Amino acid sequence: MYKIVFMRHGESTWNLSNRFTGWTDVDLTEKGVAEASAAGRVLKEAGFSFDLAYTSVLKRAIRTLWLSLDAMDMMYLPIKHDWRLNERHYGALQGLDKGETAAKYGDEQVLVWRRSYDTPPPPLAEDDPRTSFNDPRYAGLPKASIPLTECLKDTVARVMPAWDEEIAPAIRAGKQILISAHGNSLRALIKMLDGISDEDIVGLNIPNGQPLVYELDADLKPIRSYYLGDAAAIAAAQAAVANQGKAK
Ligand code: DG2
């Protein structure tokens, strides 16, 4: 049996101000820093040890990984940064307040943009200063790989090659892996691992800074999955994430 641990980053400054973030590279809040360290302590106390970690190229996930590894006294761990683990690109919504957007377009429309499988938010214009075309961290990528918006289906299409080509072979080679990523890049991975339907994925919300353990069989099919933290606190955090897209 194999095990892998997923973790959404701790609270970011734009999680706190309730803004659509996507590929915007915002940092952790003080609370997010504390959540990341606490996640490392929880993993250590539960006896987890790792050989390798993966994260995105966005600092909220990278710093979460650093802080949790520090709390585990495992800062020596090799880290692979993969742009394919980035958050889902939120298109022209990036930077907007989620509650205000719901007040303007309606809770239903915002739910579709946030959680539907195949309806992307409106795209950024090619000349919008928010595009990632000139960001050096994506310099090696063909322009067509740099999104202007993404639905979850698009995110699945970029995350799964990272899983199939990099992460799954490393698991099969016996590596104990920790992945620090984002709400929607993790929803993409979990949808594929658990075979969640396009309809049911709407209801899946990932809390900040909570280690999520997957036990996998020899074919890397999930046997069971569970959060390590307090169940009531995690359910409350998931409900809070769901409510972020509602008009106040
Ligand atoms: C959030 C997720 O991404 O937002 O892009 O706004 O996980 O990097 O904080 P993260 C964003 P929702 O899809 O939950 O609105």
From TrEMBL:
The active site is at residues 9, 87. Gene3D superfamilies: Phosphoglycerate mutase-like. It comes from the Bacteria. The keyword Lipid metabolism does not apply. It holds the Pfam family His_Phos_1. The record marks 182 as: Transition state stabilizer. Pathway: Carbohydrate degradation; glycolysis; pyruvate from D-glyceraldehyde 3-phosphate: step 3/5. Substrate binds at residues 8-15, 21-22, 60, 87-90, 98, 114-115, 183-184. Catalyzes the interconversion of 2-phosphoglycerate and 3-phosphoglycerate. This is 2,3-bisphosphoglycerate-dependent phosphoglycerate mutase. The gene is gpmA.
